Amino acid sequence: MSSRLAIRSNYSLLWGVSSIEQIVSFLATQGCTHLGICEKNNLYSLHKVRSLSKKYNIKSIIGSELISNGESVFVFVASNYGYSRLTTLLTNLKTKKNFNLVKELKKDSKGLLLVIKTKSLLFKLNGYVESLYCAVTPNNFSLVSISKKLAVPLVAIDDATFVDQSQWEVHQVLRSIATSKNIGRLDAKECEDPLSILLTQNEYLKSFAPWPEALKEANKIGEIGSKVDPFINFTFPPYLHPNPKELLKMRVLKGAIEKYVNLSDEVVSRIDYELEIISKKEFTTYFLVMDEIVKLGTLSCGRGSAAASIVAYALGITNVDPIKHNLYFERFLNEEREDLPDIDIDFAWDERDDILHKVIAKFGISNFARVANHNHFNFDSAFRESAKAYGFTDFEISQKKNHHNNLKEDPLWEKVTSIALKLVNTPRLLSMHCGGVVITPHDINLYAPIENSKEGYPLLTWDKRGVEEAKLVKIDLLGNRSLAVIRDTLDSLKKEGIFIDKNYWNPNDDYLTKQALAAGDSMGVFYIESPAMRQLQRKSGKGDFNHVVIHSSMIRPAANSYINEYLRRLKGGKWENLDPKMDKLFDETYGILCYQEDVSKVAVALANFSEAEADKLRKIISKKDPSKLKEYEERFKKGCKEQDVKEEVANKVWQMILSFDGYSFCKAHSASYAMISFQAAYLKVHHKEHFMAAVLSNGGGYYTPSAYISEIRRMNINLIGPDVNKSDYTYKGENGSVVIGLMAIRNLFYKSALAIEKNRPYHSLEDFSQKIKLERKELVSLVASGAFDSLEPNLSRTEQLRELLLSNANQKNGELFVVPKQKRELPFPVEQKSLKRVLFEEFESLGFLRNHFILKLWEEKIVRVEPTLAKNLHLYVGRSVTLVGWPITRKSVVTKGGQMMQFVSFEDQSDLFEAVIFPKVYSLYKNLLTIQRALIVRGFVQIEYNVISVEVKRLSLL
């Protein structure tokens, strides 16, 4: 047996250098059997250490080096209680101002093995703690004699940071970044000893040969510590009730009656089946807690695989009927599943923080924490920070980056580049996960170390993978703008006496909504408004719920080749399943694997995988885990062969499985989002001005506000404002019009907009100036936006600004009497601007024009080009055309050959048009596509499944 203790990894943010895999793999070659990696004041890498140790057949020991007020101690865990004590110590150290390490250890060190390096701390703790040891390291023997006098055992400690000495230079850069000092100004105490290097096993044994008892004690610590595993069982959020299983069943049946009215045998059977599995997996309280959380918001959407659960549907956690839509419950939960399934909940984006505070109030701040992200260096950040460490200024760094080919001409810049490359993927700092929270039955610091986030939340310092491996239940509470759009639209309608009960609203049966979606008329509609999705809708000609679910799942990077085959089959093209075992499995998607769970289904059907094995395959594919992919490919093909599946078929199916590489969705997730899509689409079709106002008020979606303004015009909705007497802060829909909100005006502060709304009506510019005090830049933007045009229709905007500035000046000077208009003079001449100049200023203020399309600004040039209008492209199929377009969105794609191309959506004054820019053309004009300007587009009009696009041949600025 060989235990190696107190080694530091690169997860000690901005401190260590050696990666954990470097350390573990090196020690594995040296015959190490037990390993204790001790990061400074944290356990950031605990789960990565455990995972890699298992991979290399080494037993890991939980430990950390606690440093405070000049004192340092290596702390190893000897029991589950000791683990909780260590996490509490780390939490207190990071969150309490008056933390005293010695007092804390004296108060309670049960379950901890304390290894001391310094004489002062040894005397402070000796006699006060249960398990105290003296450290002897390859470079420090100072406690050996004291150890014998005090009868405190010696322990062999590596106390190493580097796998080899070459890493010292990188370590210096990391310490420079951490301390904001140039390398030349670093104090020796701020860095590790350059000799702090991992020894080979022979060197290690030779170093400690004088103290064989120290090696023996190290092995004892290794043996004791390796038996501790605090992560065997799931830790669920608390729910106090004498019989939670009965409570859950009662709530589910009540909810099911509300959803279904009459409970069929199929519904009752499915409920019983799910509740049985939930009970066996001990997830009952989890569902009860999620039920409570969902009730905290006005509108929510449970998504992900949880939408396949009728229990979640009956409780109102999810919004889609899993029986009606044939959702695969086993993708969410099955008896063989070892990990905890996620229930992700979306709330309206502007309610999410309030929801979090309500959760804290309900379950207690001491039982709550947000989940962390572990952020790593990319090359750009590594290069910039490394250069700063060597004293270069931001300007010099930017200049060098722009002339990176010259880096090798300067030895110092070459060194910076070399170090930056070594820093890539090194942990840099913690941030907060966008929505992950953990709620525990007891104080959360008993389960994990907690820090304070910049935003003021308790922060659980592991990332989502670490949280899962700790068997803590991560609940994702996320913000969704479209839920706010739907909420605001419904609220706006309610003010007009139109009530839509969201609990009994079923828009996916509405004929006009389905017709609009079949035509790809979904701009502003959540989840299905991207150009690719709208084109697929048009090509398919299908706007029903089931096909929208298919399409939103099929639009993924690696599935493009299957989309065309899907469309061919959809349009009546002949097809048959690749193997009889696939019969009826994928009929609804025309024999094409579409959803995440299809990977599992086909692995079970063709290769005889168990449900658990098939689910692991799905995860490996979605997480792009190359280390295990080859192994599972071989298992799949071997299983297919044993099931008499033809080799050619197995290969084709495997290629289809690989199309789920990267991101993909389960059917339940797409179905739950499709329900929101249908609600949004219904509102767009039937209450268009209210819906589009809500879209803009909530920041839009896939497109810029300018694009949504153009869509409003195409929908024949009248635009009003902005207007100081009519506009609220947000946009609003009324009487077939959309009133532009004051939020659209650049440079206008939020509090100023609210003041304008509160103090109206305004009868004149002077009246406005007396009621509202604004900064000059706010007045300039307000005037340019046309917000005073209805107030003073006889004054030009130049004259409006003159009057306002003078009124403001009078107010500031405290004049008792207002100077008559005709006698007012400014100390500068008033320029009368051309219409074109006025419109340009309006565009700068709003990002769009109130009464014209953006291309109005280039009207004279457009006349000379004589472009084809987008609405007439159907007349030019198979011909070359010249158009003038304003780019509204673009998507870059890498071809199989590794070349870059782009899909760009343009609009002109008549309509939208889609353009395809292939690699050769893209390489010529890519710089033009990085700017927001009107472009002359010359290309060839093509049509596929009745959908028109333009293959671009040339681009130029208008």
Notes on the structure:
By secondary structure, the chain is of the alpha/beta class. It is built from 38 helices and 23 strands. β1 (about 5), α1 (about 20-30) and β2 form a beta-alpha-beta unit. α7 (about 170-180) packs across α16, α10 (about 245-260) crosses α12 and α20 runs parallel beside α29 (about 665-685). It is globular. Residues about 815-825 have low confidence and may be disordered.
What's the helix and strand layout?
Blueprint lengths: L2 E5 L12 H10 L4 E7 L5 H10 L3 E2 L2 E6 L2 E7 L2 H16 L5 H7 L4 E5 L2 H7 L6 E5 L7 H7 L3 E3 L11 H12 L21 H7 L4 H14 L18 H17 L4 H16 L3 H11 L5 E4 L6 H6 L13 H4 L11 E5 L3 H12 L4 E9 L2 H11 L4 H9 L8 H13 L3 E13 L10 E3 L5 E3 L3 H6 L4 E7 H15 L15 H8 L12 H10 L4 H10 L5 H11 L25 H12 L3 H12 L3 H17 L4 H12 L8 H20 L1 H10 L7 H10 L3 E3 L11 E3 L2 E3 L10 H9 L6 H7 L4 H9 L12 H17 L21 H12 L12 H7 L14 E15 L5 E8 L4 E6 L1 H7 L9 E10 L2 E11 L1
Parallel strand pairs: 1-2, 2-3, 2-4, 6-7, 7-8, 10-15, 11-14, 16-18, 21-23
Antiparallel strand pairs: 4-5, 5-6, 9-10, 11-12, 12-15, 13-14, 17-18, 19-20, 19-22, 20-21, 22-23
Helix pairs in contact: 1-2, 7-16, 10-11, 10-12, 16-18, 20-29, 20-30, 21-29, 23-29, 25-26, 27-28, 29-30, 33-35, 34-35, 34-36
Short summary:
The protein is 43% helix and 15% strand. Helix 21 packs across helix 29 (667-686) and helix 34 (776-784) packs across helix 36. Strands 1, 2, 3, 4, 5, 6, 7 and 8 form an 8-stranded mixed sheet that branches. Strands 9-10-15-12-11-14-13 form a 7-stranded mixed sheet, with helices on both faces.
